[in-house]
Each structure stands twice: as structure tokens, then as C-alpha cells.
Amino acid sequence: MQGQRLVAVKNRLLHSAGWKTFHDFLFDYMKMAMGSEWGTAEIKKPLTERHPLRAHLPIAV
Predict the structure, then answer these.
(1) SS3 track for 20-51
(2) Which pLDDT tens digit goes with each residue over 9-48?
């Protein structure tokens, strides 16, 4: 659809031109689902105390 990737999640249809692979979508979706406050709080924790999802992602994500 005009350079956009579409992904259906439950009753929502999400789209982005930035998703080149399904992995790109997953990184963005995690940020949407968990919220930026959660991500920021996890980054402040020592690596050993971070949630496993957050511990293995780059800081910019």
C-alpha cells in the first residue's frame, strides 16, 4: 500500500513505511505496547536488573 507495510494486531491495522521486516515492526510494537515510561525506567536500571526484553535491545530503541 504505497510503500507502507501493514500488520493486523487483534482488531487494529497498523502501518509504517519504516518497517522493512517483521522484526522492525516488533521493535516498534513493543515500544507502543509497553510505553515510553517503562522503557525509560528500564534503561535506568543496571543491566542485570532489567526486564529481559529491555536488556537485549539497543538503548536507542
Answers:
(1) CCHHHHHHHHHHHHHCHHHHHHHHHCCHHHCC
(2) 999 999 999 899 888 888 888 888 888 898 889 889 998 8
Q: Where are the domains of the chain?
A: 5-55
Predicted model pTM: 0.64
Angle between helices 36-44 and 22-34 (to 10 degrees): 90
CB atoms within 10 A of CB 19: 19
Separation of alpha carbons 9 and 29, rounded Å: 10
Asked if residue 53 lies in contact with residue 38, where contact means CB atoms within 8 angstroms, the answer is no
